[in-house]
Amino acid sequence: MKKLLLMLALALGTMGPAQAVETKVFGVMFYADWCHYCQILDPKLDKVRKEFEGTAFKFQRIDMTDDSRLYASFNEAKALGLGRIVRAYGQGTGFMLLVDARTGQVVDQIVARHSESQIKAKIQQALDS
To answer: Which of 9, 44, 104, 125 has the largest count of CB atoms under 10 Å?
Structure first.
């Protein structure tokens, strides 16, 4: 039913590129199930992420738990133009990089010690710059 409604909305032009928000900042989280710092950071990011839904911030998880997840995550990131970032920073886990979508440059880093309010501020600052 949802699929039918979505197709109908697209056909009628009620949804489309005009309503899409262009990504300005990517939050690239380097994650693994076994990573202690990921287990601390991930719940904070889940709460903060909800506040940035529908904005120019896009969350992208690079799951490094095993080779198959890493391969799938890398291909998804590569399609978004983030392949260079994953190759450059993919040796570690437990952090999130804020990446300018236009330039591909890292503008900030978020780690487990940051509070939810600090994370929000860093994301907002990246969006505002």
So the answer is: 44
